[in-house]
Amino acid sequence: MSNRWGIELNGPEADQKAWLMLLKPPFDPFVEEVKDERGDYLALRSSAFDGMTTSEEVHRAAKQLFNTLNVVMSKNADTDPVTNGAVIEFVPDAQPRRHNYLEAEGITVRLRVGIAEITVKDAQGNVVEPTPAPSRAQLWMRAAALEPEIGSALRYLQDKPSWFELYKAYEAIKNMPNGGISDSEIKRFTQTANAGERHHPNEKIKPHKRPMELWEARALLTQWVSAAIEHILGKNP
What we know:
By secondary structure, this protein is an alpha+beta fold. It has 7 helices and 7 strands, in the order βαββαββββααααα. It has helices at about 15-20, 55-75, 135-145, 150-155, 165-175, 185-195, 215-235; strands spanning about 5-10, 30-35, 40-45, 85-90, 95-100, 120, 125-130. The chain starts with a strand and ends with a helix.
């Protein structure tokens, strides 16, 4: 992984801490603490920035990376969105250089329970350090890198997706394993989405006799994406 580039994290402190806890090195992507003349802050490092030569390239790549990561973290740690701040250029034997880009981003703040840290001790009371392993969030990001359609589906599931976005996610992963979702539920989803939500009902597109609620559709697509991720990771241990 290149050591040249990183992206400053912006957002609620609790959400930034969740990123720090679940995105640890040496696995990709990871968050590290940075110290410079302006104080301490967190930066995301990723192999997605490898080979890039300008901060503009890194800034553009970071937008899609953060979109995907925000969905992954919301599904795995119930976080609110964290936004990409300045591009950080790490220079050997010097202070990191900051390349600032203005972004109009809204931040949602809410109260919730933090992530619990579990400490394991042996019979003598000594702390047993766990074997380093990628977090579930990092595994999801690996699956998105291995199968771009998974990354596409995840981005469509950002925040509270509409029927249009859910159907786009469905189109991205409809040929992947779905975790046992029945054909009847898939038909119920597609018929609800097409009859009234995406198109006006007509002779060819008729409403389902038991239309699916939006929250049900969101849960169905989340299950489908999760199953597709497990399938991809199983094929690429």
